[in-house]
Amino acid sequence: MTTAILGIDLGTTNSEVAFYEDGKVTVIEGPDGKLFPSYVGLDDQQNLLVGGAARNQYVLYPERTIKSIKRLMGSSDPVEMGDSRYMPQEISAMILRHLKQAAEECLGHSIERAVITVPAFFSDQQRRATREAGEIAGLEVVKMINEPTAATLVYESNHVGSKRVLVYDLGGGTFDVSVVQLQDGVIEVVASHGNNQLGGDDFDTLVEEWILEQLQEDGIQDVSRQAQARIKRASEEAKKVLSVHPFAQIEEEYLLEHDGGPYNLNLELERTAFEEMITPLIDETLDSVHVVLKDAGLTASDIDEVLLVGGSTNIPRIQKVLEEVFSQPPRREVDPDLCVASGAALQAAMLSGEQVQSILVDVTPYTFGTSAIGDIDGEYCTDVFVPLITKNSPVPITRSEVFYTVTDNQKDVEVKVYQGEASHALDNLEVGSFHIQGLSQRPAGSEIIATFSLNTDGILQVQAMEKATGMAKSITIDNVLSRDSEESLAAARNRINRLFGADSADIEEEPEEDVGEDNGTGSEPGISAEVLSLIEKARNLMDTVSEDDREDLVDLVEQLTTASKENDTARVEEALEELTEIIFFLES
Ligand code: ADP
Ligand code: MG
Description:
CATH superfamily of the largest domain: ATPase, nucleotide binding domain
CATH architecture of the largest domain: 2-Layer Sandwich
Shape: globular
Bound molecules: adenosine-5'-diphosphate, magnesium ion
Largest sheet: 6 strands, mixed
Distance between the termini: 75 Å
């Protein structure tokens, strides 16, 4: 049955509303999707706009649009919108009314009660103002719970015993971090810290500034309000693209008039450049993490789990730095945008006397990635594991990463797909591999984009694409989520056998994969990791050795590749030996 109490996350940037029914939480979709932008405005006819419509006009008509009202909750100063003045709780009430209506439309009946979440640091006055906003909107606020408590509830609703959790919440304009203690079913915020002027909006601003700099380089100084609004939107869009893709294309046709003609914006922003821009801000959040740990009298190793909340925690860099601090990947199985509202709905169900069940979604229990040349702990290494889809990510999921060719005019790339966590790819389980051949003749360092997509049925699709030409090839690997340990053991045994140079009779059958092609190139039988790493070493040496040695290297690499492809073990061994010798000689 449906709980007649809604769960509402009344956010600074976005708000969400959810309900609990038949053992599951449903987040309600409104006109703009599941996120309801926390914007209120008046259009030119003085009609009230709430949500996406108000947000869309914000940059153009800030005088009749209000954002981030949550920051002013509890203050007795009114805000101006058009010709009238409103108390902060009245503006929040308009957002709540909007959420209530969407819920009623979805459920088909009226609803009068809600659980609303508030930041842990909210004062009594701010909480009172929030309750008042509910009342103005026609909602009885049966309970207000802290946002980190709501998030913890989602992950730990059935937890028995004691546990310490750190909730890292980075939204659009605010950052909060809390230590939450679970003890015998009681969830308590032990310490909380944050910065209510730091969030994803600041990341957007950095991208905007970067775009404006590029415009200046083209001699453009004056940017109309209209163009600014488009740049702002494009910046946020690019930022979101970079959460899943190594590059973002920023294209705005006819952005403005320049030199008497239309100026089209066309830029590419790299993830690494974006990460560099936001590093100081991420560092600031880490400072707060350390403050909150200190306040709670704890160190990072006392934390059992880290939970991610807030839209900005979709940024991979943030996940990575937290993993570094806490030596474990943060949990984000529940969409960080919807986590708090879902927790509020669970609390609502509990208040109605329901026995709530865990609502955790499908996640991958394994990490998947590929290998590249790089260094591990400062040591050069040809099998650095590069994870693309990390353990505990919700599925379905798609992630891309950029790789670079090693040599000039490199013709092919071998893509190996591994499952595991070890930093050396060869210590992980290889679940598939393929070759992408016929790369266009380019200098070393040209980009190859690898994309991994994993669906709920455990089908992993891996594609490699030459960025410059779009030429791509892919592989589909079935049942990656249910590989039993027997298979992993067989694979591990094979790997070791190969390294010890065992003959093919010792090599067990491994599960077959199905190699799909996006272009006309043929697929190749596998070349062993040992051979590949040697080839890579040889290729690296080619640029620095004498003409004669280079010729020898090229010759041997070719022999080795051909022999491997033809499965001619004797010739492989022979070439391998010679190549090892010459590399040894050249390296010393
Ligand atoms: P709040 O709780 O403060 O209302 P949200 O949790 O809704 O805010 O977070 C909104 C912010 O999250 C915005 O700055 C938005 O651009 C950012 N965001 C949402 N999705 C992504 C994403 N995939 N990658 C990066 N940032 C994102
Ligand atoms: Mg939120």
